[in-house]
Amino acid sequence: MPTRVTAPPPTDDRRWKIIDQVMQRHDYRPDALIETLHAAQDAFGYLDTVTLAHIAAKLKAPPAKVFGVATFYNHFRLQPRGDHTLVVCTGTACHVKGNDRILAWMRDRHHLTPGETTPDNHLSLVEVRCVGACALAPVILTDGVLTGKKDFEETTTIIEEWLGDAT
Amino acid sequence: MQREELQRIATEHRRHLDSFPHHILVCSGLGCPQNEAIVAALKRVIAERQGEARVLVRKVGCMGLCASGPIVLVLPEEIAYQTVSPNDAADIVESLGKGPVQRLLLPPDLPFFTRQHKNVLALSGRIDPESIDDYLAAGGYAALFTALSEMRPAEVVRCIQESGLRGRGGAGYPTGLKWATVAKASGEKKYLICNGDEGDPGAFMDRSILESTPHAVLEGMIIAAYAVGARLGYIYVRAEYPLAVKRLKLAIREAERRNLLGHAICGSNVDLSLQIRLGAGAFVCGEETALIESVEGRRGLPRPRPPYPAEKGLWGCPTLINNVETYANVGPIITHGPQWFAALGTDRSKGTKVFALTGKITHTGLIEVPMGMSLREIIDDIGGGIPGGHAFKAVQTGGPSGGCIPAEHLDAPVSYESLSELGSIMGSGGMIVIDETSSMIDIVKYFMEFCMEESCGKCIPCRVGTAQIHRLLTLFQERRATAADLVQLEMLCDLVKHTSLCGLGQSAPNPALSTLRYFRQEFLDRIAPPPPAMEAQS
Questions:
Q1: CATH of segment(s) B20-108
Q2: Are B476 and B523 within 8 A, CB to CB?
Q3: Which of A137, B105, B194, B240 has the fewest CB atoms lying closer than 10 Å?
Q4: Are B204 and A133 inside 8 Å of each other by CB?
Q5: Cis before B70? omega within 30
């Protein structure tokens, strides 16, 4: 069993405890890396360099490997998100049903392309490849709430109303 | 916990369920939003009328017809209601024992329901996915008891071999052969993996199975572990499926509590512990060797095969890796026998297959049909045809690894062989209907963009080839292509198909190749006319 690295958490934020527990549950083995990154992103919302360095030290993994894994998988993000998130599904069924028009509309109307956040940190636009609700295509998620089976006009109205309420 | 004790729990729970004259089942899958509010409204109305002893409200798994969701089913009359809202609760409760609520009624003779053959989905939408007692009461885990008490491991393997079951993840490798290889492989440690990394956009069979009947997948895995001698298993699920992950975690915990997992399962000498590993949004991890890399905590880069995982998989040990739907087929095969399964389907594609029917089709949703049913029956009868008076153009099967099948081949049966002959693949079960309003070049470019972004970058044909094919397709989309581009496109597709390391690259050209085969005119129409000849200089 690998010896435990006594790297103290970078800050006294209690969320580090949750992350350390995940690593401990896996005996600090290298295969704990992806599970740990999930836990860290759940706790902090994104993965910054301090977090990645701490995990690398604890798992005795080269920082390059941790960075490599964190950037290989689409699910992990290295930048914080805005206060609100609009997810547009671009799976095949949603594409056929016209979600590319929603993305074009977001670009023209709100000057956002997928992956971007407004300068005031109010809204992030995220594109995902299929949430698995293909029968309800086209699908969007406004702060995690799924809306489907709506045409272009209805969908944009829903987004505008949600943005109006989400202040 | 012994078998007899579990059977007692099942009997008691069945008696409890039978004590209610009326059952109202509410779909609680991802495809039926608002279902929690509907359950709450029904319970409130029933409480107001002091009907708690007579009416049982149960949240269940997916009933399939997501297009008409949220769906509510009233038992024992088998009355199905569509697009139910919480406001309909009073009417539904009021109608119990009288006539159905006409304005919500789903026609009982809808071909969507009558033409299906449910095997894997038999309990989906009939039991509470979050209750192991519901699964036990419905006959769940009986196959496991049979396997443990009446069959030796080699007999289980033979049973799966004789059934003719083939991998439901896409490639269609004979499942029994895989099991036999792992069972025979030497080595102290063997592992079991369930591939639930359903990355194919437009497919949600595995999500629905995991959300609706998680115990059926566990049961298949425990039987497999007994057959091949594995003691530790991993279920690799997409992080994008939070509900499936939640229900799977609960199912594992409940199974452990009932000694269906852990040490000496149900008094036998079988030990098995199962862990969940979350995927993180990489399509390539659906490829078995990339998935193994990911379970080991690394980037999902595929390994060259051979050696196959059955000989050298996780941590270099023999590893049995099957898809979610494959494991869900195991229980019924043990219960009904291999001949029963082999009698369904075609000569070389046995059993039933679950499909996610989506796109420009009336009845979108999840279906299960016997192998060999024609695409036309699936699309016109079960799917209810194309809405809006538009004409059918193509059906896309197999996602980014599959192809587009045109109208003239709609009478082809769905089987591994026939779909492959048509230049597509069975794939995991995504079936996307495309109508005349879509450009095939747009669809092909969409898939190529997907493969380009999802290419892991390990081998050059896939990393560079998909980018170059995408560039060429963009030229066609923008009507800037030349005749030479068409030649190069076909050459590149052939190259990437035959020289890539793993299935992602090898199959990435399929959408383009099948479209070049059936919709060539769309490419020719987009070749730009040559620029007017320059005036000869005087």
A1: 3.40.30.10
A2: yes
A3: B105
A4: yes
A5: yes
Does B283 touch chain A if contact means CB atoms closer than 8 Å? yes
Q: What pTM was computed for the model?
A: 0.95
Both tokens assigned to B303: 């390994």
> How far apart (Å, rounded) are the C-alpha atoms in residues A22 and A25?
5
**Helix runs in B308-439, H state only:** 324-336, 338-342, 375-376, 416-421
Q: Name residue A147's amino acid.
A: T
* The pLDDT value given to residue B83: 95
Q: Are B303 and B295 in contact (CB under 8 A)?
A: no
Rounded to whole angstroms, the Cα distance separating B297 from A35 reads 8
Domain boundaries, chain B: 20-108, 132-342, 352-435, 440-524
Buried b (16+ CB within 10 A) or exposed e, B419-454: beebbbbbbbbbbbbbbeebbbbbbbbbbbbbbbeb
**Closest to A135 (Cβ–Cβ): which among B241, B297, B364?**
B364
Report CB contact under 8 Å: A92, B432: yes
**A33 vs B297, B365, B396: nearest CB:** B297
Q: Which amino acid is at B264?
A: A
Residue-level pLDDT at B335: 97
**pLDDT confidence of residue A167:** 62
Q: Which fold has domain B440-524?
A: de novo design (two linked rop proteins) (1.20.1440)
Q: Is B401 exposed, middle or buried (0-12, 13-18, 19+ CB in 10 A)?
A: buried
All residues of chain A having their beta carbon less than 8 Å from the beta carbon of residue B313 are none
Cβ atoms A33, A55 nearer than 8 A:
yes
Which pLDDT does position B536 carry in this prediction? 53
Does A132 sit within 8 Å of B198, measured CB to CB?
yes
Which two structure tokens, joined as six digits, stand for B475? Answer: 């030229």
Q: Yes or no: is domain B132-342 CATH 3.40.50.10490?
A: no
| Residue B88: Cβ-neighbour burial (10 angstroms; 0-12, 13-18, 19+) | buried
The tokens describing B359, both together, are 């796109």
Q: Is B299 in Cβ contact with A72 (below 8 Å)? A: yes
Q: What values do phi and psi take at B405, rounded to 5?
A: -105, 125
User: Which residues of chain B carry a pLDDT beneath 50?
Assistant: 538
The DSSP secondary structure of B55-111, one letter per residue, reads EEEEEE---S-GGG-S-EEEETTTEEE-S--GGGHHHHHHHTTS---GGGBPPTT-H
Sign of CA dihedral B114, B115, B118, B121: negative
CA-to-CA dists, residue B503 to A73, B307, B400, B429, B497, angstroms: 19, 15, 11, 16, 9
Closest residue in B to A41 (Cα) is B280
How close B391 gets to chain A, by Cα (Å)? 15
- The alpha helices in A49-144, defined as continuous H runs, are 49-59, 63-72, 92-96, 99-110
Task: Please state which of the ranges A7-11, A13-17, A18-22, B180-184 shows the lowest mean pLDDT.
Answer: A7-11
pLDDT of residue B538: 46
Domain at B352-435, CATH from 3.10.20.600, 1.10.1040.10, 3.30.200.20, 2.40.50.320: 3.10.20.600
Q: A1 pLDDT exceeds 60?
A: no
B160's enclosing H/E stretch is helix B153-163
User: Residues A132, B240: contact at Cβ < 8 Å?
Assistant: yes
Query: Looking at the partner chain, which of A32, A38, A68 has a beta carbon nearest the beta carbon of B239?
Result: A38
Secondary structure element (H or E) that encloses residue B233, with its range: strand B232-237
Q: What pLDDT score does B528 carry?
A: 86
Mean pLDDT of A24-45: 96
Q: How far apart are CA B245 and CA B235, in angstroms?
A: 10
